[in-house]
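Subject: sequence -> structure tokens, single chain

Hey, anyone have a minute? Need the predicted structure for the following. Not urgent.
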Amino acid sequence: IIQDARKFIAGAQYLGDGVYKGGFGYDADTKRAYTDLLNTYYTVEAMSTTADVEDKRGKDEKKADINWDETVKYIEKMQNKPESGDEAGGFFYNPTDPKAGTTTNAEGVVVIRSYGSITYAGMLALIHANVNRDDVRVRSAYDWASSHWTLDENPGMGEQGLYFFYNITSKCLAAYGQDVIVGKDDKQINWKVELANKLIKIQKIDEKTGQGYWVNNNNKYWESNPELVTAYT
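Reply:
Had a minute. Here:
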């Protein structure tokens, strides 16, 4: 079952020309050039964590995999470069649908804004793609995330996607392997403790059943659904 799923995913990679090359998105059958970092992150995580099933194929059966070189190149294209100023190191969704909008840097150049959840997704995608944690792409994403540390919002997006932000933050920093990060003004942050305390604080209790749940007041990305965000949490 997993081998068949891997074949399906590998066949969905867009390998045409342009900025979308190497990524994953929607409408693969139409060959429409539209990919994004979130779908690509999910793909990389899935293909990385199931890679061992390829060893169980028959000797004459072709193994299924994505083009990892092109995937990493695509992920890198969604990362703001040093010339982006304060946005440097962070990630965006894709060039035509940046989600967090744009800003103008010190030189008067319009750049796509980085935002929290997609930066952690991009960083985690690189880790799953076996990019070394000391690589400038991973390190600059970590630096952006550290300097924008907050649990009061999804940085750059406010309440939108807040619980997915909590989810991807924990997965990414756990994979990165560092319990204490350095935030603004050299503040030492034990992110696991801070996140756990935050989630405990904002849990809601159903008065009729006594059950605990979470819910977002902002319904962007269906986060006003308590089943979804409680699962995230």
